Amino acid sequence: MLRIIKGFPRTNREEYFKELAKLDGIYIPRYYRTLYEDGKIVEIRSNNGFPLPVKASCVKELKSSNYPEKPIVPWIELVHDRMNVEIMRGCGRGCRFCEPGFIYRPVREREPSEIIKNSIDEYGNTGFEEINLLSLSTADYSRLDLLLSLFNEKFVSQRNVSIAFPSIKPDSLDEWALKVLHDVKKSGLTFAPEAGTERLRRVINKPLDEERFIEIVQKAYELGWRSFKLYFMIGLPKETEADIDGIISLVKRIQRAAPKSAIKLTISPFVPKPHTPFQWERMDSFENIRYKMAKIKSELSSPDISFDRRDIYSSFVEAALARGDRRLTRLLENVWRNGGRYAGWQDMFDFKLWEKNARELGLELEIYTREYSEDERLPWDHIYKIPKSYLLHERHKAYKDELTEDCRARECENCKICPTPIILAHKLQTQHIFVPSYGYGRSKRKVSSGGMRVSFGKKWRFRFEKCMHVRFLSHLDTFRVIERAIRRAGWNVEFTEGFTKRMKLSLGPPLPLGYISRAEYFDLEFKIPPSDSQIERLNESLPEGFKILEYMPIVGKIDSLFSAIDVAHYIIHLPKDICISGNDLLSILNMDSIIIKRREKEIDIRPLILKLNLISPSKISALLRISEKRTARPDEILLSMGFERERIAETIFERTELLKEEYDGFYTPMGKLWEINNYA
After folding, report:
1. Measuring CA to CA, which residue among 153, 116, 180, 130 is closest to residue 487?
2. pLDDT tens digits, residue range 570-587?
3. What span, in angstroms and rounded, lies between the C-alpha atoms of 376 and 191?
């Protein structure tokens, strides 16, 4: 593909597309024609000899060189705000509803040593505090015991990095793995039983040893977990009332196994997807889905159970788009032109908009959610990944309640995807690699900590600046930026004890959003104090806009940052076209009270204004009292002076120092006497 891209000028787009269309894995719709009869597809033709069917491409080996060592690190918190490490691609379980499980075949595993090496390199460039072991079924990785022991050694023990899994097959964990996860996983456990009875789980080919599952939940509860997420589907093929009752019964058993734990229950309507054995199935009706959801919610009413339901109407549109043909392209465009945006977000999804545009185009979306006949031409038949005959064979087994075992555990099921070398290279191992379990979890701390704990950490205080282009980072985002920079710099720091270990890092009072500062502070406790070169390495690790200005070790007892600060000094840089006089400031100081409104409360900030000095006609020095309960902000002073909010937004507010008022003057958190005359 790269050869073709480099070899064609961008002006010759048509020839460029024609060459790309000859490659496996490339589908360009303009070179294929769909013929209809009575609204159904009768034939899909290729124009001018382009490949038919279009074959999927496959990466045969997951090479380390394919993975980035320096991914972009966000300054603000994201939804999946962690380091993702792929350990395996593909899944051999064959859950009959799961599109990724079929289209990402065959199963390919990475070597544990390569995973660890890439993870260490990426961690050194990112500083993420959590690593997600990414795959469709992480618990099926054949050398999971070895991999977890290596992660525990290299990341958990040495760097206090937590390890996260995607959803786990409920009965796939053993006690050893739970003990390891107890030390490395800090959030709740996520399980996806999908169906409520063993019969229906055989239909969808996702068997579950329910007794084993309950044992795992009990063991996890004993080890300290108090949060569990459960995913179920409703409207599956061959579903009956007994299967809905089964969901209710299973959740109640989990609740008894883990009393007073937070259980988040997510219920989603079944959406039939292409390239799966259930691609011919219909989607359940709105009425049936509403009834089933209402029954589950009413039967599981409990303060410990939160209920999250996937929206019925967005699931209906998802089903129509998943199994739709090219006639839906006009619908997509019209919905977009009429204001449809971010439809994946529930508050932005408008089902009436989809209905209206479909009606105007003469489309019935229900024809895409109906049951397809087995001899019918499907809109995606010309795209080849798994033989249709194999998918039909699996569908027929589903209607007989028959299971198909993981092809890595037994003989090949002849899906015609796996080349022989790949399938032989990654047969499931039946024996675990022995790793002693006493070195993990709370037992490790009990063994290694005889008597009273002695801390050898040494606390240091740092002063840093926060400049213009990072001024809109919040206090929490700033904390996260500093913590990850410390990790990237490789500092040997102390962490708290307990189920969730946290770096012993504390920041001073929050800087209002949009302000810049030359006087932000943080305290950090070290196992081994840093050298000057290590501190310089932190400056190199910090994003542009942050810089360490000053630092010192804390000797003896000293107040915490919040206790050591009760006054802040600011310089207000007004827009150049605004000039004020000393009389303007004097009028503020002569006021008995200055009432400002924050949210629904009224606060008098006049007692919090210690001094206001005019440095120049467009620059003000402000000394203000701050505390956890009451604080005055310079922008509120301008508001009380009659400034319009638009002009205040153009003003630069700079915090120059944080101070502690003593009987003989003001002192900085570094213990230095501060003179306000420098800003008069």
Report:
1. 130
2. 999 999 888 888 898 998
3. 36
Amino acid at 485: A
How many whole angstroms separate alpha carbon 550 and alpha carbon 568? 18
- Distance between CA atoms of 345 and 59, rounded to whole angstroms? 33
Pairing of strands 665-667, 652-662: antiparallel
Q: What is the full DSSP assignment across 261-315?
A: -EEEEEEEE----TTSTTTTPPPPPHHHHHHHHHHHHHHT--TTEEEEE--HHHH
Strand extents, DSSP E, 512-608: 516-526, 546-553, 567-573, 595-598, 601-604
Q: Which of 515, 522, 537, 510 is nearest to 467 (CA)?
A: 515
| Closest C-alpha among 295, 264, 119, 278 to residue 206 | 278
Q: What is the DSSP string of 601-621?
A: EEEE-GGGEEEEEEEETTEEE
- Helix intervals (H) in 135-240: 144-151, 158-159, 175-184, 198-203, 210-222
Q: Mark the ranges of the chain whose per-residue pLDDT is less than 50.
A: 421-457
| Residue carrying structure tokens 């390891």 | 180
CA angle, 14 as apex, 378 and 383 as ends, to 5°?
A: 20
Can you tell me the distance from the alpha carbon of 302 to that of 640, in angstroms, rounded to the nearest whole number?
Answer: 50
List helix spans (H) across 368-440: 388-399, 420-425
Whose structure tokens read 């339901």?
309
Element (H, E) at 458: strand 458-466
Strands (E), 481-541: 505-507, 516-526
pLDDT digits (tens, 9 = 90+) for 487-503: 999 999 999 887 678 89
